[in-house]
UniProtKB/TrEMBL annotation:
Protein's name in the database: Uncharacterized protein
Source organism of this protein record: Spirilliplanes yamanashiensis
Keyword annotations from UniProtKB, A to Z: Membrane, Transmembrane, Transmembrane helix
Transmembrane segments: 12-31, 72-91, 103-125, 140-159
Length: 164
């Protein structure tokens, strides 16, 4: 356990957690299960459906542009999580690993990643509108706000970069 924590970086751990969230809860199987078996009028049902927001799919009756946009959103959530984790100064400025600033930097990274991923993906849809892009960014930021604490926990105790 000490060996793995010694080499764990905050951006790497957060990105791995984001990848697992997107692969598992964004899968078509989980999204279908959440839609069929949860009640969106309850807090638990709403949250379980929210987990499926960065869904990805590999076959659909929808246009190829919309399928690519959906898949791009899932990919961008993971890639932008890494980028924001690397760029946000919370874990850089923390005097000790595992501080509250590291947790909030991880959480904020996921909020930003969700919002920007949705915004970018919405702009490549067929007939995109600015209002539609703003609404999508709001949905992505909402996803990041309610799920990002998992990324924040994953980044706790990680090093900002390589150690000598």
């Amino acid at each position: 356990m000490a060996l793995t924590n010694r080499y764990k970086t905050a951006p790497g751990a957060g990105t791995l957690a984001a990848l697992i969230l997107v692969l598992v809860f964004g899968s078509p199987w989980y999204a279908d299960w959440a839609t069929d078996n949860t009640n969106p009028e309850t807090a638990g049902g709403w949250w379980l459906r929210l987990l499926a927001w960065p869904r990805w799919r590999f076959d659909s009756d929808d246009s190829i542009q919309n399928v690519l946009s959906t898949d791009l959103r899932a990919i961008l959530v993971v890639a932008l999580t890494f980028l924001f984790l690397y760029m946000l100064p919370g874990s850089q400025l923390a005097r000790a690993r595992g501080t509250l600033s590291q947790f909030f930097a991880g959480w904020a990274s996921y909020v930003f990643a969700g919002g920007f991923a949705a915004l970018i993906a919405a702009l490549i849809l067929r007939d995109p509108t600015l209002l539609g892009a703003f609404r999508a960014a709001g949905e992505g930021a909402t996803y990041g706000l309610f799920v990002g604490w998992i990324i924040g926990l994953a980044t706790l105790g990680g090093w900002r970069g390589t150690r000598s």
